[in-house]
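User: I'm new to structure prediction. If I give you an amino acid sequence, what do you actually give back? Let's try with this one:
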Amino acid sequence: MADINIQRKKSSPSPWLLVLLAAVVVAVAAYFFLRPDPADEPVPPVATPEAAAPATGPDTLAAAAAVDQATRRAAIDSIPQGDASQDAGGSETAAALATQAASDPAAPGYALNGLQKLTGVLVSLTDRDDLRDPTTTEQRDNLTSATARLGEPNTSLRPGFVAAAGLIRAMQQKAYPDLETQANALVSLAGQLSGRSATAAEQHQNQQFLTQAAAAVRILSEPKQLN
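Assistant: Good question. You get back a string of structure tokens that encode the predicted 3D arrangement of the chain. For your 227 residues, that looks like this:
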């Protein structure tokens, strides 16, 4: 009797395995096709340097100098110059300064009033042709700057006294050689002032300075003696 070859039927693969393989294939394909291209990635913003500070050029410096000059000129214009009855030399203002210097140094406002009168007459003198030069102009501007805020509380008078003495010496050097000793003494005395009037010693020093300044102003108010 012939043998019958019976072959065992092969089992078909599980459908779930096929689904899993298909999912893996789809995932791999999606990764390669859908991944972002490096060229498409956004470029990080480039840091923008802060704006450089504007350079201080010649025009800026010139404008600042003009403002400073205008401020000083305004301070000069704010100083009372007296009425039209005063002569060109400012002798009435010099006389008023001498009167103030001779008054009571303990009186309220003695030193302040004296410095204001001294500033007024000195500024007017710098307008004279024989006294006007760059040095006296510079010293005049120093004086007006030092006395521009005399009306404010607790303002020291010392810078004004020092600047006034410096202007007197500048005018003396310009046209009054015989006044050299008095001018140098004023500069020295001004450096010793405290700028206050609280004590009898301070009041005495203020009166001494204003008295000597008034004497120098009287000489400066006189026409220059030509040799």
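You can read the tokens as a compact description of the fold. Here is one thing that stands out. The chain has eight helices and no strands.
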